[in-house]
Amino acid sequence: xxxxxxxxxxxxxxxxxxxxxxxxxxxxxxxxxxxxxxxxxxxxxxxxxxxxxxxxxxxxxxxxxxxxxxxxxxxxxxxxxxxxxxxxxxxxxxxxxxxxxxxxxxxxxxxxxxxxxxxxxxxxxxxxxxxxxxxxxxxxxxxxxxxxxxxxxxxxxxxxxxxxxxxxxxxxxxxxxxxxxxxxxxxxxxxxxxxxxxxxxxxxxxxxxxxxxxxxxxxxxxxxxxxxxxxxxx
Length: 234
What we know:
Elements: E1 5-9, H1 12-30, E2 37-41, H2 44-52, H3 56-72, E3 77-79, H4 86-92, H5 103-113, E4 118-122, H6 125-129, H7 132-139, E5 143-145, H8 149-161, H9 170-185, E6 190-193, H10 198-201, E7 211-213, H11 214-227
Parallel strand pairs: 1-2, 1-3, 4-5, 4-6, 6-7
Helix pairs in contact: 1-11, 3-4, 5-7, 5-11
């Protein structure tokens, strides 16, 4: 019996892509039979109040509350398809009633599997400047590069003003493509799409570098974990 997956959502677009990937790839592998899934989502405004204040313990408390709701619904483990929120998750993960898969750990494992030694990182400014990916990548011996300050600000604004609302404009895609070109010139071997909406803007054919899609990577990790199954109730 597959494990019940809990999704602690933050942004709707990233969570929807993660949910859709679990369902579609699970169905493809098992004839409509994707694992049971429960999703819980506080209003994004509540998260943004804490994120903009860089109050990461408050972000963590929201995720813990989601974990409690998911656990009571029967979820065996949880995922959060939001990279930035992991800075809060890292503070409370050991307090959770159910285990979590960690988005940066899954990306670092995939990058190591593919033999990458240096990757570029795109996401919100809090994600690019924060610790979520630093330790996960370093643990696998992988260096990470982020854009210069002005570019980080613009990338973050595009994410928060457009992508999270499902707006994917051609000029925005072109700006991301130019940033990836800089990563390539600086010796990066791949680019981490470290905001769960970016894969909706940048497809593999849009990128000068191989992409590491954090949203779908986390979804596939959840499918693998669920497939391990659990003991039947006596």
